[in-house]
Amino acid sequence: MACQARIGRSENTETMANQDEFFKKVVAHAKEYGFIFPSSEIYDGLAAVYDYGQLGVELKNNIKQAWWKAMVQMHENIVGLDSAIFMHPRIWKASGHVDAFNDPLIDNKDSKKRYRADVLIEDHIAKIEEKIEKECEKAHKRFGESFDRQQFVTTNARVLEHQKQIDEIHERYAELMNANDLDGLKQLILDLGIVCPISGTRNWTDVRQFNLMFATKMGSVIDDSDTLYLRPETAQGIFVNFLNVQKSGRMKIPFGIAQIGKAFRNEIVARQFIFRMREFEQMEMQFFVRPGTELEWFKHWKEERLQWHLSFGIPADCYRYHDHEKLAHYANAATDIEFRFPFGFKELEGIHSRTDFDLSRHSEFSGKKLQYFDPELNESYTPYVIETSIGVDRTFLAIFSHALKEETLEDGSTRTVLSLPNKLAPYKAAVLPLVKKDGLPEKAREIQHLLMPDMMMQYDEKDAIGRRYRRQDAIGTPFCITVDNDSIVDRDAEGRANDNYGTVTVRHRDTMQQERVSIDQLPAYLKAKL
Ligand code: GAP
Questions:
Q1: Ligand 1 binding site (Cβ under 6 Å of any ligand atom)
Q2: How far is the CA of 282 from the centre of ligand 1 (A)?
Q3: What does 304-360 look like in DSSP terms, one character per residue?
Q4: CATH number of this structure's domain 1-86+213-418, picked from the four choices 3.30.930.10, 3.40.50.720, 3.50.50.60, 3.30.365.10
Q5: Whether pLDDT at 1 is above 60
Q6: pLDDT in tens, 94-138
Q7: Residue 86: phi, psi to the nearest 5?
């Protein structure tokens, strides 16, 4: 199945309007079924901060476990770390965050709304991209199956004109960003005729820089020297522990240190649900290599990380690489793995070749030599680093939004189903007694307890069986186990043996097919499927 609009099972490319509609359904579904709630909701919420509910925390933990397993458990040369959120303030000076972790801001004088100048420009580019999509959509309808998108986008005059516009804006924008030219950014916004979405006017202030780190104070004396920052990335905790881990773990290069943890950024444009949050979680791995080998390792990790995403069974055309042409001054290669979110392709994960920048800077600022003695070369050097950095919340959003479908069934009814990868589903199976009597609930409870040590289980005896199936479909439970009379009665009224005695019906979420499985075989049966 290709990556496409799933609510309504449209075969067409999404339009902006039904993308928006679908995204609203994602947010509403997440809340209704206990995946994600707005933070502090009874106090009217806190912008861009969210709480994970009873099902959300399960899905989130499963994502983290899948990452940890792939990165740490499956690599003997990668070990874990859990560093503190609070760190010495000089770390952020050394890393460059105090001086350069800024967003360019601009205010609209009429609406008094504040925007990120770069986001205004990117949104403008996205609108032109949308025009290209519409041209493709129209051509697809016209040519049907024989439509060749690649050929169309490289030959159609209107598409080429749009693409030219995009390339020109990109080029000018990248130059301005690299030169930190704030006046130039304002001029670009004016030249592109970008208006404030609220007031509709072009009455903009100058662009100025805004640091994204949250500052706080430690201890009882309040002065500048004890300003601490909530970490904006987990990576620095890894760099400053490089020697501790390398020496205590007797690690030999190449090796990696992986960490999952909270990060905080005072995002100005915090929107799109859990895509851009002020408090979020990252899964980062820093891989330390011999200088000169970093680009090979960069290629390796770029491929390996994409394979991890594909391992969830989401179609490959939902992902794409975005190689950075303009690099940060310390990087010699960088790429994003982008995902086709309901609001378009956006960054999901970054893979960066960070050279020896971080270790060198921490050596300089701390006065401690952060080097590695390479016994094969018989020399010491500052290792180079390949970083893989992914947001837990963005991964959640990618997987959740891709899984949510509204299907029209053969009888014309609809069902909402969350086709999560089995290994990520919050509950692996639900046990449902067909009726609430005749010993069926007792048998169902027995089965629940049989399976509970191995997997998250739900028990549900309320409402008609069809409604219970729908409830489990909506929360992504891959298997429903229905206990009926045949499960517990060994002979019928005439004394004939019941072939289905000791079996239950297992219903599959995605196909809705049902099969009889012996209760004794259930643990092995489910483990194999999961
Ligand atoms: N250490 C490198 C680093 O932090 P980044 O591109 O700024 O790089 C890495 O962030 C990943 O963290 C992103 O690809 C994204 O998945 C996630 N992320 C960043 N900012 C986020 C935010 N405000 N809300 C949610 N996730 C975010």
A1: 233, 235, 265, 267, 276-277, 280, 282, 284, 347-350, 387, 389-391, 393-394
A2: 7
A3: HHHHHHHTTT--GGGEEEEE-SS--TT-SEEEEEEEEETTEEEEEEEEEE-TTHHHH
A4: 3.30.930.10
A5: no
A6: 999 999 899 899 999 999 999 999 989 989 998 999 999 899 999
A7: -80, 130
Protein residue closest via CA to atom 2 of ligand 1: 389
User: According to the model, what pLDDT value does residue 4 have?
Assistant: 46
Please report the pLDDT score of residue 8 as a whole number.
35
Measured distance CA(441)–CA(429) in Å, rounded: 16
Residue 11 confidence (pLDDT) above 50: no
Which atom in ligand 1 lies closest to the alpha carbon of residue 235? 1
Distance, CA 396 to ligand 1 centroid (Å)? 13
Q: pLDDT tens-digit profile of 419-453? A: 999 999 999 999 999 999 999 999 999 999 999 99
- Kindly report the protein residue whose alpha carbon is nearest to atom 14 of ligand 1: 349
The pLDDT > 90 percentage for the chain reads: 82
For residue 6, the model assigns a pLDDT of 43
Domain with CATH 3.30.40.230 in the chain: 102-211
**Strand 102-107 to strand 114-116: parallel, antiparallel, or no bridges (unpaired)?**
antiparallel
Could you give the residue range(s) of every CATH 3.40.50.800 domain in the chain? 427-529
- Structure tokens that stand for 481 in this block: 């186990």
Nearest atom of ligand 1 to the alpha carbon of 277: 24
- C-alpha of residue 392 to centroid of ligand 1, in Å: 9
Report how far ligand 1's centroid is from the alpha carbon of 322 (Å).
Answer: 15
Measure 3 CA to ligand 1 centroid, in angstroms.
23
Q: Which atom of ligand 1 sits closest to the CA of residue 278?
A: 23
CA nearest neighbour of 288 among 329, 319, 324, 247? 247
- In the three-class reduction of DSSP (H, G, I as helix; E, B as strand; rest coil), residue 255 is classed as strand
Q: How confident is the model at residue 498 (pLDDT cuts 50, 70, 90)?
A: confident
